[in-house]
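As described in the Methods, two query proteins were run sequentially through the folding procedure within a single session, without resetting any intermediate state between them. The first query and its resulting structure tokens are shown here.
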Amino acid sequence: MTSALNSSGRSREQKEKSIWTPHQVVLTLLIVLVSLTCLLPFINVAANSLSSKSAILSGQVGFWPVEWTFDAYRAIFADPAMVRSLFYTMVITVVYTAFSMILTVLMAYPLTKKRLKGRKFINALALFTMYFSGGTIPIYLNIKQLGLLDTPWSLILPGMLSTYNMIILKSFFSALPGELEEAAIIDGANDFHVLLQVYLPLSMASLATLTLFYAVGKWNSFQDALYYIQTKAYQPLQLKLYHIIKGSQAVDIAAMEGGSQSMATEISESIEPATIIFATLPILVVYPFVQRYFVSGVTIGAIKG
């Protein structure tokens, strides 16, 4: 009798759990709507990149390619300047992200120590940069005087430290138990050893999240290259994409880069979406591997400010 009652109670609880509440339905529909809002434009761009010129001009392309063709992608991969720009942008992004993470860690860790003299003043200086900037012209003149103009270092050194990311990591470090550091110091560890052997291994979620922040920000940036770079060999992929989107004709691009003019004429409408996909896919491939650290990395770092 008791077992029958228990089984009926469990089945009732399972049914209650399986029934969606109105709140869950509305929330699920909202998430689906937002996801479609982000996904459908990308699908449309991909469909245009694989469609013929006539189908695009006639407005037949929606979320599925019409009159399939890979000519735009063939033209991109056949262009040595475009392929070289892709690998060049990868190198710039990796170097910038590595330097940025090193600076972020080296600034966030000392600012968690109350024994650091002038800690509040340094914090105030860092926060000041979040509200006030020197402006585009003074920054440009500064880069010019330093001899960084029209060099790859003009894409790496300026803006290498994000105050926002530093505050996230500093908050995460502050939330770690102080007993761990005390135990390491008793064992003879100095600050450098505590950072490398205690703090960093426990901060992988935040480190991965901030690494993605830096990498995505640098990969998508083009304004710094637009201001500081003139030599075509130093132009990143996003700057080339910017010129295409702003109205550069595919025939002119092909002529300057030594491509086929007839091929460019045929793919003039699909070269822009194909270039967008070409520039977006590398970061999309990397994103899923660190996406799972996003929530834990940012929220844990926000526990203690």
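Immediately afterward, the second query was submitted; its sequence and tokens are:
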Amino acid sequence: MGYQAGQQPDNDIRPSVVAGRFYPASAATLKLTVQKFMEDAAPVQVKNPLAIVVPHAGYIFSGQIAADGYRQAANHSYEVIVILGTNHTSGSFRKISIYPGDGFSTPLGTAMIDKDVVKALLAADSDCVLDRSLHQQEHSVEVQLPFIQVLFPEARIVPVVIGTPDIDLCSRLGEALAKCLKGRRALIVASTDLSHYPDAETASDVDHKTLAAMEKLDPALLQKVTQTQMKRAIPNLHTCACGEAPILAAMSAAKAMGASDGKVISYAHSGDVSIGERDRVVGYGAVVFSTDPGSASVKEPDPAAATGPDAPLTDADKIALLAFARETINRYLTTQTVPMARGIGPGADQPRGVFVTLKKRGNLRGCIGRMIPDKPLRELVGTVALQSALEDPRFKPVTLPELKDLEIEISVLTPMTPVPGADHIVVGRDGVLIRKEGRSAVFLPQVAPEQGWGRDEMLDHLCLKAGLPRGSWKQGAALSTFQAIIFSEGDFKSAS
């Protein structure tokens, strides 16, 4: 039985080394973080999971995909959970390291090790050794523990670090695991991220090939696919799966335990979250190996499906975007993580510039936007909502207690259109961007009416905002206009 938070067993316990970095250091915050991810997790899609593949990056980037994987097993009761970790720390280690102590601690307490399974593994596979050094700074095992402690508090663990993705080494381990876990209520967790550091589009292409190979439950095929991808000399692609060895071992074990196939549950990369950038990303996937027959893959969304410039943004989409903006701010302030943009219609898939405006009792409290979108609207709303709350240089960062007093307004922008002069600007209809002498500034369409400005007065204030003298718009300035779909929480209060 696991120890609860606050209890300190007098045993050989490996302390947490990434609390406060990869996940929250506060027990209450960490538990809330896991619970929030689980609330948003993908629905159960398999009946009898034997092994799951989940990421091990910082929770703010990969926690939701990890929760999607754990959700597939959350309705089951396990005696033992084997965590197959990635070797990030020792390039010379070529065996399989099992932690020789009694347990691993996190802010949630201590997860105790199943010594019987450890003993059986050491006897069944000569590649397995007791080696503390591989675990001392390794995060890939540790970051799985909070999910396990919240979802399976009675389970014991077997922490394993596989030295290298040698297919024979991993196959022997998989067969040994199947033998040692026979008759036990057991789950295997393979801890891995996917592609490292290409741009978002490349990562998605590479990762979906890797995930498709995982579904085949064929270790040799997976290794062939990853090797083929690496031979393409893709810019900034450092690896297709940093935990390839855990995946190989989990596949071998699952097959020996009767698994019939694999199923991709979800996929994302670090650029998909509100704080992520898309020019250099890491990929994450949740995969389940189970005895369920005929599971089908989660398909990559069709980028041409209802995402063109005429895709409608419905009232339901607007309500969902406002709720997502609020939850992004709230989640960051409470857990230092962010939600993923889910449950929003296809109208939010298109790339559109967007501003998020925060008002407190009618007064401006923050407003930041992005004119040129680098990600779909659904994701960009979260990005600029967080920036409006925390990074507007005119205001102090928003605090959690005042969030309830804020009203959120979203302005979804049309593309910019250069205009030859001020007489082409219609106050109340057009937002305006001015560029001159290396300076620029923008006003949303609603700013001038809210301030009671006419066109010329609005342009004078726009010049001042850009750090230019009044009247600078009259000569040598580049002016562009745009329109906006503007909606706020107040617009839908009667509907709620």
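The domain at 3-290 is CATH 3.40.830.10 (Protocatechuate 4,5-dioxygenase; Chain B). We note this only descriptively and draw no conclusion about the first query from it.
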